[in-house]
Amino acid sequence: LPITKAIQDVLQQLGIKELNPAYSTGLQWAEGEGRTTRTILSPADGNKIAAVSMATPEDYEKVVTTAAAAFKVWRKVPAPKRGEIVRQIGDKLRQHKEALGKLVSYEMGKILQEGLGEVQEMIDICDFAVGLSRQLHGYTMHSERPEHRMYEQYHPLGIVGVISAFNFPVAVWSWNAMLAAVCGDVTIWKPSEKTPLTAIACQHIIRDVLTENELPEGIFNVIIGDAEIGSLMAHDTRVPLVSATGSTRMGKKVGEAVGARLGKSLLELGGNNAIIITENANIEMALMAVVFGAVGTCGQRCTSTRRLIIHENVYEQVKERLTKIYPGLPIGHPLDATTLVGPLIDKEAVTTFLGALEKVQAEGGKLIIGGEVLSGAKYQTGTYVTPAIVEAENHYEMVQEETFAPILYLLKYSGDVENAIELQNGVKQGLSSSIFSTNLLETEAFLTHWGSDCGIANVNIGTSGAEIGGAFGGEKDTGGGRESGSDAWRIYMRRQTNTINYGRELPLAQGITFKI
Ligand code: NAD
């Protein structure tokens, strides 16, 4: 099938042509002569969208040098003025929301509503960053010494490396890049090699803002590449902070490399998120959250609901309702407004999905619905699957793993909520968690320090779909990083304590006497 006119219009509006770009330092693009070409196919219909060039280590070197020079200029721009640039970027994103949302949907495979939601997150973080640009404040403290003043300030850090995953191809960049920008940093973004076009589109969108404000090359950089470029960034002492989003496997490598040179890393890695449904839950409300969490983005969100921990008294009821709802879920092209479940990113993901189902059944799991690869005219790509539900036990190896696909494990618990919390916490990952209950004793227990051990703990809300205002991230194998709202901005700055003596004596701290 030829690529549709609608998508061609989107590509044109977003400035994506057949130019095979490899990197951009903001205004200019380096085209791909002599580099390896990568063709980007849509998981929705298998059509070629465009091609990109894989940047080389020499390209990386040029980008870092340009970024380092730009930092010297950008850090001197007052923070509220940096905020003004971000405000203009937010406006441009508003203008292009529909087109960019469509491209996110078409390149990544999430349904259009989620594609638009992702762009809305970018707009929201721009607004947040604008406000923040006047609030990058530290504390003032009272000095123990007379006629002394003590306070702390936050200074720009330098180059921030951003490595992003395919499933949130643009939002995660904006969470990092917009905060980093108001903090006075410059960013080098290495998007997922599976979804580089949306990154190129973002760079085109913000280029006008950079040009209109006569800003130099190097403040916002994007480099197209795979793990090799990511690894260069992780090892590079010129990059004081590397923010990496992706699998735990990748995070361990990046964290190790950055740690070995005593750099800072912000790791946003895999989740194995659970919803607890107690016998006091509003079941219908819980089901809405479970289905959105389990099949949304075809189970490819870091916060996707993977485990459902259900009280034995309502277990059969929940299972029965889910097995009625699942067959009615419209699976199809993500740009079709009636679709609720789009495709997996590629055939490799389908193989992983099938392999996980096979393994969990070998361990004793019972597949009760789904788990098929769809075929026929609508599903020629081989990337469409029916979301699966499996009755399982928490200790199964596959239940302990994050399989990045729509598999929901049903786990039964009995007794009180602490038993459910123990199951919820009984995995290596610690990203998102939630409880459905109308009983205050249960919900409060879930939120105590002996409750959920995750970075996100929700009550009567599912595991996926966070707002940008809170700090986002998780514990344990999820990496411990926090980005987006609250005070997540602090990691993008270096902290300095200043003590000023405005007297004529030089008293020492702790009352030490030292006379010469
Ligand atoms: P991935 O780990 O395969 O790749 C992520 C990024 O890391 C890509 O840009 C890739 O090129 C790069 N990369 C891979 N190996 C690297 C290395 N050794 N050094 C440097 N860079 C390297 O992940 P994916 O398949 O794109 O995304 C899915 C994973 O991301 C899931 O585990 C999901 O839970 C996780 N994720 C986490 C969050 C979060 O905020 N916690 C958000 C989105 C996705």
TrEMBL record:
Q: Which GO terms describe its molecular function?
A: aldehyde dehydrogenase (NAD+) activity
Where is each Aldehyde dehydrogenase domain found?
A: 29-497
The portions of this protein that span the membrane are: none
Name of the protein in its database record = aldehyde dehydrogenase (NAD(+))
Per the record's keyword annotation, is NAD included, yes or no?
Answer: yes
Task: Kindly report, in one word, the top-level EC class recorded for this enzyme.
Answer: oxidoreductase
> Which family, according to the similarity comment?
Belongs to the aldehyde dehydrogenase family.
